[in-house]
Write a structure and sequence with these properties.
498 residues, alpha+beta, v583 fold, 2 domains, five-stranded mixed sheet, four-stranded antiparallel sheet, 17 helices, 36% helix, OXTCase_su_AllG_h-dom, DUF1116 domain-containing protein
Length: 498
């Protein structure tokens, strides 16, 4: 109001104007959330409008959200968990057979995703298990392998139960060579098999003679050669390679071209200097790795597993520490709920198909490789890899939008994985169950697509989302152990420090 005596604006008016942020001095902009019809109507009238991708939390989740968010130690637990995730320092330290590092007995196989038995296994999972039986000499023919598996001749266990991750079907047998990755900061160890390449390979469910011959060669030549190179080189800082690769256009799930080149630059001199590796074998190993742009993927997965495992078992934390698929189920594990799996039906990816294949040939999503998204790579780093859209579909703007959307459901920005196109902003990292449920935004995963029939191999690549129920179920479990406001610490931890 004005001063009636002088008709002047009182002295406190500038402060009020400052508090209003200049709203009266510029044109208004409408923010529209929910139904698109309102935003569309405004846009049709040339009214500036900012659409917000928001929907109300699913019915029945309000009580659980209140319990978890009202836990007095919840925020500190999440801060601790995500801090451990982003400060992990995974190093490649060795390459050794699975029977040595994992203690696998003959007839025991690891697989990707949540627990699974033969009866519920999808086509590519069955194909990979058949191939593993042939490789280990437990069957002479594919049909004989199927019959043996039907009779329960093999023990099946999830890779994650053994601090391991496996791409696609993720099947690991005792004779397969494993990358050994140690976390130099927190002390954990993670493992992953060697990458076979693309096309008809075991991880996509193929098991023909060329698949078994390749795996046999990898066991006899590639594994020992890499072991000699890694031991001669010494511990190799994988996060340093990953950080550089992100700035060179990789997202470290479906695009590993830069990371593979950087890895070979590190290991090639050590391999050539290793006297125990004949020159022809060293050349063959380098030729194989250099001809496979995804060769680094498995090392990156093991690095991601080490980072995620560093954040496990923080009571009260709603941080996701595993996202994995077995071709039938999609499962997540959460820091505050231990090794418990929360599962739902795996979805079929939406993407581009090879040759004459189409959606009808695709199996539901499969593989442990979503461990990359779990720690801020893959679909969460799409803005760093615009060229990925040529492989998974969409436009460059879609890649940028996907990364921006993931900031809404994560706890932090990665201090090491920085995206040039976002002014070197860190990738979104640390999927938070409560944020996923509150916003309705699901993690985006870029992935390969396996053929649904055993023996087919890869049929395409694309993007996929988890089933929403896995996060709501995890939220319910967290709520059951949450402390009410006014109580200190978390269930099972009187100090609140875990």
């Amino acid at each position: 109001m004005t001063d009636p005596a002088s008709d002047r604006v009182p002295d406190h008016a500038p402060d009020r104007a400052h508090r209003l942020g200049g709203l009266l001095a510029r044109d208004p902009v409408v923010v529209a959330a929910g139904a698109e019809v309102f935003a569309d109507a405004l846009a049709a009238q040339a009214v500036p409008v900012v659409p917000v991708d928001w929907r109300p939390p699913p019915a029945g989740t309000g009580t659980a959200l209140a319990a978890v968010l009202g836990d007095p130690g919840h925020a500190d637990a999440n801060a601790r968990a995500v801090r451990r995730m982003v400060t992990a320092r995974p190093h490649l330290v060795d390459v050794r057979p699975a029977r040595e590092v994992l203690g696998l007995d003959t007839g025991t196989f690891l697989h990707a995703g949540p627990p699974l038995d033969w009866e519920r296994a999808s086509g590519p999972m069955r194909g990979a298990l058949v191939g593993a039986m042939l490789l280990e000499g437990l069957a002479e023919t594919p049909l004989g392998a199927e019959h043996a598996l039907e009779r329960g001749a093999a023990t099946l266990e999830p890779c994650h139960r053994h601090a391991t991750v496996g791409p696609m079907a993720g099947v690991v047998g005792p004779s397969m060579w494993m990358l050994v990755v140690e976390d130099a900061e927190h002390g954990g160890t993670a493992y992953c098999s060697l990458n076979e390449g693309l096309g008809k390979v075991l991880r996509y469910g193929a098991y023909g003679p060329e698949v078994i011959d390749r795996l046999t060669w990898m066991g006899e030549v590639l594994g020992p050669a890499l072991a000699a190179a890694v031991r001669a080189h010494g511990p190799l800082d994988l996060m340093a390679i990953i950080a550089r690769a992100v700035q060179m256009g990789d997202e470290l799930h479906n695009r590993n071209r830069a990371a593979t080149s950087l890895l070979l630059r590190e290991l090639a001199p050590a391999l050539l200097a290793a006297e125990e590796v004949p020159r022809d074998r060293a050349a063959a190993a380098l030729r194989f790795a250099a001809g496979n742009d995804h060769f680094f993927l498995n090392a990156g997965m093991a690095a991601a597993k080490a980072c995620a495992d560093a954040a496990r078992n923080v009571p009260g934390s709603s941080l996701v520490v595993a996202m994995a698929r077995n071709g039938t189920d999609f499962g997540v594990q959460v820091s505050g709920t231990g090794d418990r799996w929360f599962t739902g039906p795996a979805n079929v990816p939406d993407g581009l198909y090879l040759g004459g294949y189409g959606p009808g040939d695709a199996n539901p999503d499969i593989g442990d490789s979503a461990i990359t998204e779990t720690v801020g790579m893959g679909g969460f780093a799409l803005a760093a890899a615009p060229a990925i859209v040529r492989f998974v579909g969409g436009e460059v703007a879609d890649a940028l939008a996907a990364t921006h959307r993931m900031y809404e459901i994560t706890l932090a920005e990665h201090p090491v994985l920085q995206v040039p196109s976002l002014s070197f902003r860190g990738t979104p990292v640390g999927v938070d169950v409560t944020r996923v449920v509150r916003t309705g935004i699901l993690p985006v995963i870029d992935t390969g697509i396996a053929g649904r029939e055993p023996g087919t191999g890869q049929v395409g690549a694309g993007l996929v989302e988890p089933p929403p129920n896995v996060f709501a179920d995890a939220l319910d479990a967290l709520a059951a152990s949450a402390r009410p406001p006014g109580r200190q610490g978390f269930a099972g931890s009187p100090t609140g420090r875990g």
